[in-house]
Amino acid sequence: MRKTILLKAIALLLIISSCSDDEGQDLIDFTVNFTSETVSTNEEDTSVDVQLNFSRPASEAGTINIAYTGTNAEYGTDFTTTPDGGSGTIAINVAEGDQNASFTFNKLTNAIEGSTKSVSFSIDGFDNIDWSQGAAASTLVSFTPIASTSGVIDSENGGATIPNQVYFDFSSATQTVVKRDTWEIALYNGTENRVFLNSALAVSAVELTGVTDLLTITEASNLSEPMELIGLNAMFQPEPVTVNTVSELLEGLPVGYYQYGNLDEGISFTDNPEGTLEDTAFSEVSTTAEENHVYIVSMGNEIPIEGELEEPIDPGSINTTGDHRGFLKVRILSDGNNYTIQYADLAETDSYSEVTVAKDAAYNLTAFSLTNGETVSVEPTKEQWDINLSGVFAYYGDSGGLVAGLTYSDYVVHNNLGGAGVYQVIVEDDAPTYTDFSMGNVDEASFVFNNRSQIGTGWRQPYGGPVYEDRYYVLKDIDGNYYKFMFTAYTSTEGERGNYQFTYERL
């Protein structure tokens, strides 16, 4: 086992070094594309940003000119833009180093029910003769909701420390960006009373069976009965571990190779990777208060700050795991419509904090920050996201025979709790290419609705290897729209990890 791990490490170093040999190569052509061919608004929207992507960062400043044509829509009466487009053209300034640009569409009126109102924007030239328009040279902004047809998306995960989670909705071509350290737990808004952990931050939790009083537990406390667990020794071999005290338990609670667990006995301090309501680290929250026990929560790891690192992150490498964020003790109660969260520092014996959070049926989960003691806006409403480019994903499980706390980078999950389904297509003799795949090729029986990790890292080769070119995904959203999408990169043009790109098309 140790030999295998060493070989994998050597392979990773070879891949990283090969990713850094791009200096001195000629710059690729600078092309400009609209992110999506359609942008929609609803009655409540008063403005929306229209995004443009570049093939590479701009090596010099310049201007992009955008023309527009309205259908039942006049400039100044029905809409305006920022920058101003009253002359018939919008001039968008690009600074050296910019990787994208945008302008704002300001909606002044709504469409009359049953009528069509839209504005078509198109690239109308540049003041730099070396710049050119790409394949997506126009976009249609609708005054009413329409499903997006296609686009090329550059995610906003933030680079080699992957500080952000990105939720993406195909039908609106919208990214929702959230720092992955803004929350630790999330409360399920369905009929069951469930608690989920932030797997992108490597949060874990263990139940102290029989304990209902937070203030009786400290690091020095004895467990009510010993826990028989499995850990890995220094040679990465499994061996039994008997835990008698909270202090001993803390040694194997954080996610990592030396995390304790026992899958044969159903013991895991993380949620299952599938993201279902069963097999979460927290048991189902009972409406009988005495049945809800105290948990110790490992708060995960800090997000490294690139400017404060001792060594810069090499191109093609990542650094997603900083210092451990400590432990809290937590107890959660429910009356079926609300959750009550009780929590305190592990050493606290005098008082604890208590917050009540109401269920909100518009969302799968309501995220909560144990650090700040408040709910946090993380997931969009359940109908408004399809995939989550979580970047980092951690759980206790089996990888190639190594049963331990595992952390993955470049990870993608889909909205299984919201009802989205997805499956992978690998191009073989009887499977069409991504370009040729159409609605007639959709296999309804292949959609996976109950496993959020169906995409995972299956779109790229292991150990920092390149994106697979022989596979893509088919997704069915909650509204019955079908999309195909294919990952094309997870590094920037400079080789920085944590910059995902994918192309998609509605079927």
TrEMBL record:
Keywords: Signal. InterPro entries: HmuY (IPR025921). It holds the Pfam family HmuY. It comes from the Bacteria. This is HmuY family protein. Residues 1-21 form the signal peptide.
